[in-house]
Amino acid sequence: MKKILIIGAGFLQSFVIRKAKELGYYTITVDKNPNSIGFQYADEYGIVDIIDQDACLEYAKSKNIDGVMTAATDYGVLSAAYVAQQMNLPGLEYEVAKIIKNKFMVRRTLSENGIDDISQYYEVSNISDLEEIGNGIHFPVMVKPCDGSGSKSVKRVNSLNSLKFACEEAIKTSLMNKALIEDFIEGKEYGVESFVYDGQVHVLGVMGKYMTNPPDYAELGHYMPIQLAIEKKVKEVAQNAIKALKINFGAVNMDVLVTNDKRICIVDIGARMGGNLIGSHIIPLGTGIDYLGNLIRASVGDSVDLKPINSKANVVTRLLALKPGKIKKLPDFREISNRYQVNIYHYLKEGSTIREYHNNLDGCGYIVAVSDDIKDAERRAEESKKLIDTSIIREET
What we know:
The protein has four domains: 87 residues, Rossmann fold (3-Layer(aba) Sandwich); 65 residues, ATP-grasp fold, A domain (Dna Ligase, domain 1); 127 residues, ATP-grasp fold, B domain (D-amino Acid Aminotransferase, Chain A, domain 1); 80 residues, Alpha-Beta Plaits. With 397 residues, it is of the alpha+beta class. The strands form four sheets. An eight-stranded antiparallel beta sheet has the order 13-12-9-10-11-14-18-16, with helices on both faces. A four-stranded parallel beta sheet has the order 3-2-1-4, sandwiched between helices. α2 packs across α3 and α3 packs antiparallel against α4. The chain is 32% helix and 27% strand.
């Protein structure tokens, strides 16, 4: 039985851990949170900080693993690549992983290779840097942590006066203490999920997104299939970006904007499976491809099979972005699931506090609706989400 190490054991990684077990691999996972939900599904687990590369390597060597991977989190990408390189296992090249983890370096690489239409970008590590570049910036711009995830501390900025505060927040959020300033692009956002294997880039699917209103620009859900005339061009841009960045192995999650005049601009790239149920549910349901299974098999050196294993479906997801407050009583999720014929995945508990929704990390779970008709799936997902929200009894403040 081959051993696989999954770096990260949170809610979204728990789907990967369960899938690896289902496929018959001896499944080991690490996370610094001793209460990580994924621990209960693994054969073994270790309490290790997933951003501590040497600690992850030491643990991996002690378990004599056959493969390593991370999923749905940017924080495990460097450690997974480092372990793979040091143990001569299949994986993303470590030097490439370091570039992908730095959004400024990604932006510079894309610009130098003429991949998309972003024209201005700056890296800021100190607010004093703005004195030198501030007068040359054309507003509006987007400010984000150079190594951020989940839309945290991502802000549109319309003036020099607001830029200082946005950069301070992004630098504080960033582990490398750096912020990226780049063009703000008006357009419709899509997600692109790809899989690199044996030198080939396979674009598995393009997903539509439901987004919050400005200034947060956070995901509220996804849908497949999309009705986009230039879907083929979107896939070509994604392939070109992956090749320019020299991504040699594994999952690639990408966010792109399509403007009214059909320009395609890349918002973000992660060298890992997408979060928000993209890899575990949306791609398999929307394309019929066993995405998770292929990622796991590739990570331990086993062969992959990208042929669909079932028919494609119309799939819609909703994040549980709920009204804030402390939970007194939860609704009957099974009854809501049966009424609307949806699947509900959540981590709500009585006594816990729901935060106001500003980014993905403020979400409380997901709803998945599948239908022969995309509008019907949208209706059922939205109505069930609203019922959950109104049915939660919150403590009076």
